[in-house]
Amino acid sequence: MADAQILAANDSGAYLLRLCGDVRLTLSTTLDDYLEAMVADPEFQTLIVDLCEAENLDSTTLGMLAKVALRVEADFHVQPDLYSCKAGISRLIRSMGFSQLFHIHEELCCAEGETSELAAQNSDEKQMHAKVLDAHRTLMSLSTENEARFKDLLNALELVQ
């Protein structure tokens, strides 16, 4: 699998987030920090998530994307766009209930612009644990299927606290 990268751009409040390679827990702090700053931007207008170069997304990453989509809808009354070019990624995001969170496009993302790679942020184990719990709780809130899928994992993680 290719190394993970998170590329981002902002053009007057129109945000582009491009996830590349095998995006996992190790980039969760980087992703979460960027998404928090994005929704705090008073100029925020829209979000496009491009997964066309993603090879894999772990459940923590999926939970963070779900969380930001819910927040964008609640705070800005906008449903983000999500582009997915690979059948496996498309099946994954649909199985998680992302159709209710994003306008899903199974085609190449046409968003242009200069992106820059987000620098990997470190976090301590306690912060990482909290992010993983929050991400999985978000996924579980989307459907009964997700609740069943992640219940045992969440219970195990809560015991470690």
TrEMBL record:
CDD domains: STAS_anti-anti-sigma_factors. Coiled coil: none annotated. PROSITE patterns: STAS. GO terms for molecular function: anti-sigma factor antagonist activity. InterPro entries: STAS_dom (IPR002645), STAS_dom_sf (IPR036513), UCP029548_STAS-type (IPR014557). Transmembrane segments: none annotated. This is Uncharacterized protein.
